[in-house]
Amino acid sequence: MKDMTKDTMAGAAGRRRNGVGDPLGPNSEIGRKLKQYYDELVSDNVPDRFAQLLSKLEQAEPAQKKD
User: Backbone phi, then psi, for 21, in 5-degree steps?
Assistant: First the structure.
């Protein structure tokens, strides 16, 4: 029984080193989808109204620091 476990572990380690196996298993699909979602979110344009509000906030902050 110990030999079987040892062989299984050695095989899994070999697959990871060779890039054949996926060390994350089913979680790799979840990770891939999350990365895809994040990349899309980051590449989206900021709406004009939001950009205007951020600009006003940046202008107001230095005025507050001077007081």
Answer: -90, 165
The overall longest dimension of the chain from CA atoms, in Å, is 76
Assigned token pair, 40: 């899309």
Which residues of the chain are under the pLDDT cut of 50? Answer: 1, 14-16
As a whole number of angstroms, the distance between CA 24 and CA 34 comes to: 14
Domain interval for residue 8: 2-66
pLDDT at residue number 67: 55
- Torsion-angle region of 25 (φ positive above 0: left; ψ -120 to 50: alpha; else: beta): left
Query: How far is residue 62's CA from residue 30's CA, in Å, rounded to a whole number?
Result: 43
Distance between terminal CA atoms of the chain? 76
pLDDT of residue 25: 81
If one counts the domains in the chain, the total is 1
